[in-house]
Design a protein that fits this description.
Number of domains: 2
Largest sheet: 6 strands, mixed
Structural class: alpha+beta
Shape: elongated
Number of helices: 11
Strand content: 15-25%
Length: 335
Amino acid sequence: MGNREGKGVRGNSDIELEAFKREIDLRQFAVSLGYEIDRQESWRGSAVLRRGADKIVVKRNGNGHYVFFSVRDDDDHGTVIDFVQGRRNLSLGAVRKVLRGWIGRPATPRQFPALEPTSPDRMRIECAYRGMAGVSRYPYLEQDRCVPAGVLGSARFVGRMRMDSRGNTVFPHFDAAGLCGYEIKNRGFTGFAAGGQKGFWFSQTRRDDRHLILTESAVDALSHAALFPDAEDQTRYASLGGKPGKRQMGLLQATIAELPEGAEIVAAFDADPAGRGLAGDICQVVANLARSDLIFTSHLLMQEGEDWNMVLQNRYRSRRMPSRKMQLPDRRPVG
């Protein structure tokens, strides 16, 4: 009899712990302790919060538990229970008392968008990416690819590259659920995060953007911005990371569908059969949306085999100044 009662107590205890992990929004709880959301570093599926030197990332795992990890301490991670224990140095019993007040609270307006559960691979990929350095200079991009430091450090691109422990430049890829992988580039080397999936690499965006420039690689996007600096003011950039699959094309269609009225989609691909084929595919995606307000433009290079970074390198090495005006073919609406 006593054993059965003990099991019942433990069972109720387990149920309570499960409720803490699943029902308490760790973002909201952290805010109650003085943490502030970093909206520039947060994205769909992940929230970054800071308090002083403490910087954490909050996600939901496959069980629906809110979980966190510290960007600065690999041993600091877990659920809301670990979060409280680590920051208040409390026993489990004391933690229960703190968290019970957060269960069954009256409904309040949602402060944060819902976090969808994420896979272990995504959790691992994001943990690795967040641990990489955000630097001010990128030797590979500047020296090998001739991308000006001013472009890399501009508001449009800051925070959209990182550097790993080997000095590789890393470009994050996103899909509808958030970070899904990252591309790794260096001299003579291109790789992708193990277990990751290709999505799109994006520049920073602004509400007043009126142009979306699509390129085959992130380096080409940076090069295009360097060659046509006057265009950057209301222009966002995205890279497909090579030939896109069906999943990426679906993501692209959703991305274009969210563009504001009268937006222009520019296909700035390589001057080869694959690039021309991609431009045709993007034109079809825009047409399928049946939005007569959208404008599609193909901006392909004239010299066969060239890409935008090749043009940038040639101009830099011949010391010719890039054009200050963005020369695009005649725009035509897609109806």
